[in-house]
Specification:
alpha/beta; TIM Barrel; 3-stranded parallel sheet; 12 strands; about 45% helix; disordered N terminus; binds ligand V47
Length: about 400
């Protein structure tokens, strides 16, 4: 995949880019250009940006805000890579290093079942002593213990590693995972696509083209997936806009992405601990910019664990329509200094969404409405976002 507008920074916005021209496009539901994106980043105040993003958000989802009932599992933190933004990873021999046993995977799946979770989110390190079969076994064990749960697992970085380990194509790896029970893929590992920044924060890790190739193949195999962008470290506005435009280009091709999740860099316990954490204003700006640039993405997620409940609530009026879920066991952000709780109850999520003036709707991973009757749950039809929004 070629970089979109890698010379963006050197350009001043063409005379034709003004706030009025962008406002006209937003009202007419027209696509914004990379130059429009850069103009919004650099010249438009946050409240105007939020107002514009909210127009798009309400057009797509009305007053609805989505959440899900989920749990996380990070099977190991042992990782061959040393990404400078990561506080989670560990060396094999460090006291911090851990790798779960099959019994612990089963227990997590049974805990998910007891909580009525519809999704398990699984990502972890690249453990150099664990074979592909071990990773396949994690998915199989969950599937056997709780067959109804949707397994959202592995980033393209992990899938690329499995392909490297087995010397088999990415397609083969994904087919094996699907056969074991994989239902979709989370958005991690994207960081920032620009190769210069990438080489400073996650050298050797799957590059942009490898990241896109895994998602493209996953979409061809019928999997849906998410996309992220890690901001607030070494990158600049031009890298963020380029990143968004590259995501938009693959989405034009495959339509397989569901949700975009901007991820705020948490510096504590990382090699970039000297960099201050992005402000709440920056967090809201990234949500709004995502909503405005990614016209072909249905959903923008304000991941409450990472943003805080307060910013996630505010984000629901700045372009976001989803706040993620109950979560329960979160390590990646808490190792990096997140002060949010490890999880929230459904009642707390409802309160948070209602207080923000939105209507909570429980979704499954594929954005189907979840219905519950006591401990039983089931999903409705694949929903049409606009019709559903109108019905609430
Ligand atoms: O790829 C790691 C990021 C990602 C730090 O798809 C950090 O629904 C900030 O992708 N500060 C993994 N970010 C998490 C992820 C995710 C989370 C929630 C929902 C979904 C979804 C996906 O976390 C990594 C990396 O970009 N990350 N360390 C840090 N110190």
């Amino acid at each position: 995949m070629t970089l979109v507008n890698s010379s963006l920074a050197a350009r001043t916005p063409p005379m034709s880019v003004t706030l009025a021209s962008i406002e006209r496009k937003v009202h007419a539901a027209e696509r914004l250009t990379p130059e429009d994106g850069l103009f919004l980043e650099q010249h438009v105040d946050l409240l105007t940006l939020g107002h514009l993003a909210n127009i798009v958000r309400e057009r797509k989802h009305g007053n609805v805000a989505y959440y899900n009932t989920n749990v996380h599992l990070n099977p190991t933190n042992v990782c061959v890579y040393r990404c400078t933004f990561c506080a989670f990873r560990s060396d094999l021999r460090s006291p911090k290093g851990y790798t779960v046993e099959e019994q612990q995977v089963r227990e997590r799946a049974l805990e998910a079942k007891a909580n009525g979770a519809t999704e398990i989110h699984v990502v972890g390190g690249l453990h150099h002593l664990k074979k592909f079969d071990w990773y396949l076994g994690v998915v199989r064990t969950i599937r056997e213990a709780y067959p109804e749960i949707h397994i959202k697992a592995w980033t393209p970085v992990e899938i690329g590693w499995f392909s490297y380990m087995t010397k088999k194509p990415v397609r083969w790896v994904l087919e094996q995972m699907i056969e074991a029970g994989l239902g979709s893929m989370p958005g991690g590992g994207a960081e920032i696509f620009d190769p210069e920044i990438r080489s400073q924060i996650c050298e050797h890790k799957a590059d942009a083209s490898a990241w896109f190739e895994v998602h493209r193949t996953a979409h061809e195999l019928g999997l849906r997936s998410n996309a992220t962008m890690l901001y607030g470290h070494l990158e600049a506005a031009k890298h963020r806009i380029d990143h968004l435009c590259q995501l938009r280009a693959l989405q034009d091709e495959t339509g397989g992405f569901q949700t975009y999740i901007p991820l705020a860099f948490h510096p504590e316990n990382t090699e970039m601990a000297h960099i201050p954490k992005p402000s709440g204003l920056m967090d809201l700006k990234m949500i709004a910019l995502g909503r405005l640039m990614l016209d072909n993405f249905d959903h923008i997620k304000a991941y409450w664990i990472m943003l805080s409940e307060k910013i996630a609530q505010t984000a629901l009026s700045f372009g976001a329509d989803d706040i993620d879920g109950t979560v329960v066991h979160e390590l990646i952000y808490h190792d990096a200094g997140a002060k949010t709780p490890q999880g929230l109850t459904v009642a707390q999520l409802h309160h948070l969404i209602r207080e923000a003036g939105r209507e909570p709707v429980e979704r499954d991973t594929l954005y189907r409405r979840v219905h519950r009757d006591g401990a039983k749950w089931w999903v409705g039809e694949l929903r049409n976002a606009a019709a559903e929004a109108a019905a609430v």
